[in-house]
Amino acid sequence: MELKTYISLVLRDKKRRELLLLIALSILLVFILILTMFQKKQEFKRLRYVLCPNCHYKGMQEVGKIEGSRCPKCKAQLGYDWKCIECEYEFSLLRTPILGKMTKKEISKYRINESSCPKCGSKRTFPKKLPGK
Ligand SMILES: [Zn+2]
Ligand SMILES: [Zn+2]
């Protein structure tokens, strides 16, 4: 039997047509599921290292959830795991909210001051990189 005649035969049959529609719908559903799973995975990638200023516990936390997250060991406020390029000192950095009105320039100056190294005062400090980045 030729494929063309086979398809027309299948399409003529109501039950088979319904079955085909069902298969098409389930493929679509699986496709949507994979797509949402992929999106969740991408969100999951936005992780940062966190460091406890009290007991030096290290972990990972999602961006946006770091402020207000507590150390699982001693319940202290967790900060970003920050590192100084100059003296390699590692410290816990907690971003404080901007109070009052500030220009963009003032905010960036404030952020740089905030993240300067507590040991040597260097402004060349960066968040500790995640593996494979
Ligand atoms: Zn702790
Ligand atoms: Zn330093």
Number of helical runs?
Answer: 3
* Integer-rounded radius of gyration: 27 Å
The largest sheet, given as strand count, sense and whether it forms a barrel, is: 5 strands, antiparallel
Count of β-strands: 5
Taken together, the total number of domains comes to 2
Helical content stands at: 25-40%
**Ligand identities:** zinc ion
Structural class: alpha+beta
Low-confidence stretches: none
Beta-strand portion reads: 15-25%
What does this structure look like?
The chain is α+β, with helices and mostly antiparallel strands and 133 residues long. It folds into two domains: 3-44; 47-127, no CATH class. It has helices spanning 3-12, 14-44, 104-114, and strands at residues 47-51, 58-62, 79-84, 90-93, 125-127. Strands 1, 2, 3, 4 and 5 form a five-stranded antiparallel sheet that branches. The longest helix is centred in the first third of the chain and has 31 residues, at 14-44. The structure holds zinc ion (2 copies). Residues 84, 86-87, 89, 117, 119-120, 122 line the site of one zinc ion.
Key phrases:
133 residues; alpha+beta; 2 domains; five-stranded antiparallel β-sheet; 39% helix; elongated; binds zinc ion
Short description:
By secondary structure, this protein is α+β, with helices and mostly antiparallel strands. It has helices at 3-12, 14-44, 104-114; strands at 47-51, 58-62, 79-84, 90-93, 125-127. The mean pLDDT is 88.
